[in-house]
Design goal:
Number of strands: 10
Low-confidence stretches: 244-248
CATH class of one domain: Alpha Beta
Bound molecules: adenosine-5'-triphosphate, magnesium ion
Structural class: alpha/beta
CATH superfamily of one domain: P-loop containing nucleotide triphosphate hydrolases
Strand content: 25-35%
Length: 258
């Protein structure tokens, strides 16, 4: 099977001297949900921003191929035109525009006859967006804002949807409904690259995943294998001895096998 996205040994630096990614490689297959897990500061957002072309002159080293084409060094608009849609952690909404206006922005530049069907899909997935069409985006709850961001992203017809911590700040029940929507989006054939700190949710929907720590991939595999990995269970799924939980993160590092 050929990869839709192939990231090979990329290095990304801030201010040309602070390394955020040290030789990260990943392959994401067409149609799958792939998750990248990792703690604060691991480089998850940097990875998505590098792929989206949002960091000038980055990656410094390595290659990014999308559908067989080399795209590292491209302008963000050119990357977006290929169908790579990035939903940032802050959701990137226009706060003072209404729900309907934000959705319309997702349709910008589209002249195909699939628009109505896609709008129906988004309204079917998140009926609240239809009910609240005239409400300003900033007055929506966190969960509704995430739904609007996802809905708008879908109207861009992504081939690859990149999501930065979609569950962040959401109540468990709301996060669960956002994740159900991801499953529906995936069933429609969209490939998803999902960055998360909430390993339980992400591994629940993803087919495969990787763990990023301090700018390096330390473990990669099928979600099922990651879920069964002892270190992943202790550090990311919070399944372990009470004693271990109290000692915290730093002590785990010494014991882990990666
Ligand atoms: N604009 C920036 N300028 C300088 N350093 C940055 C910048 N953005 C991120 N970094 C650094 O790069 C590293 C990776 O950050 P990044 O935001 O990619 O992590 P993350 O895994 O997304 O973390 P979180 O889970 O907290 O969102 C961190 O050490 C961070 O301090
Ligand atoms: Mg981040």
């Amino acid at each position: 099977m050929t990869a839709l996205l192939k990231v090979s040994s990329i290095e990304t630096l801030y201010f040309d001297r602070i390394y955020a990614l040290f030789g990260v490689s990943l392959e994401i297959e067409e149609g799958e949900i792939f998750t990248v897990l990792g703690p604060n500061g691991a480089g998850k957002t940097t990875l998505l921003r590098t792929i989206a072309g949002l960091l000038k002159d980055q990656p410094k080293k390595g290659e990014i191929l999308f559908a067989g084409r080399r795209i590292d060094g491209w302008q963000p608009e050119a990357v977006a035109r290929l169908g790579i849609v990035y939903v940032p952690e802050d959701r990137g909404l226009f706060r003072e525009l209404t729900v309907a206006e934000n959705l319309e922005l997702g349709l910008w530049g589209r002249h195909d006859d699939g628009v109505d069907k896609d709008v129906d899909f988004v309204h079917g997935m998140f009926p609240i967006l239809k009910e609240r069409a005239r409400q300003e985006a900033e007055t929506l709850s966190g969960g509704e804002q995430q739904m609007l961001a996802l809905g708008r992203a879908m109207l861009r017809r992504p081939r690859l949807l990149m999501l930065d911590e979609p569950s962040l700040g959401l109540a468990p029940r709301v996060a669960k409904s956002v994740y159900e929507a991801l499953t529906a989006i995936s069933r429609r054939g969209t490939t998803i690259l999902l960055v998360e700190q909430n390993a339980r949710l992400a591994l629940g929907v993803a087919r495969r995943g990787a763990i990023l720590e301090a700018g390096r991939i330390v473990l990669e595999g099928a979600s099922k294998d990651l879920t069964e990995n002892e270190d992943v269970r202790e550090v990311y799924l919070g399944v372990g001895t009470a004693e271990a939980a109290v000692k915290g993160w730093r002590l785990y590092r010494k014991r882990r096998r990666w």
